[in-house]
Design a protein that fits this description.
259 residues, 12 helices, globular, single chain
Length: 259
Amino acid sequence: MTPLEAVLLGAIEGLTEFLPISSTGHMILADHLLAIKDREFVKTFEIAIQLGAIAAVFLLYVRRFLREKKLYGYLLLGFLPTGIAGFLFYRTIRQFLFNPVSVSLALVLGGVLLLFFDRLAQKNEKDHKELTAKTAFAIGFFQILSMVPGVSRAAATIGGGLVCGLKRVLAVEFSFLLAVPTMVVATGYDLFKQRGMLHAVHTDLLLIGALVAFATAVLAVRFFVGFIARRGFWIFGVYRIVVGVVFFFVFWGKTLPGT
């Protein structure tokens, strides 16, 4: 991996992690397009740079983490379903669904759902509910869907919030906040499994990727909240469908499940 490739992957991670377009899906597609040879390090790199994106959300919402004590209960309830499902099924999903064709299909299906969520969000703006423990727990079950690469953790949790009656800004902000415990646990677990690859030779690339992911995630989060308040989700749905269809035909027949 070159420093330029580290910057590119860091930017993709930061820009897509909190948008409803699937960071994992985009990283898988980017991997296959760039054809970086050191596959084992690439896997570790993509896991490690998520820490930069996590730090961005924590920095932007640090006041809420410090002031809203009941928020921790909501985040725990939101994390539990995914934590349990991840422990049980993550290895199987990673073996069979981490390939460009599966990602492309998930992008298209998720895009169609985002168009539905956009209409639901307009309804919720007029008659919305507040976040409760029950709602947080329900959103946690929606988050399980994001274990499938290409679905998008943000899309799943935002969609879950909208289905539960939250207005779109509240659904988006809880999605951001829920990302912190979910990603810290998932990233920490993956890094522990890949700890043999964390050696001094690649420290500079890891640092470059994490810093770029941090900077671009800050921009993406700030942009997204304001954008969806004015325009909604439909453009992200259309984007997902177009990208999914294009890459489906690009990679169809070239990859097998689990490759």
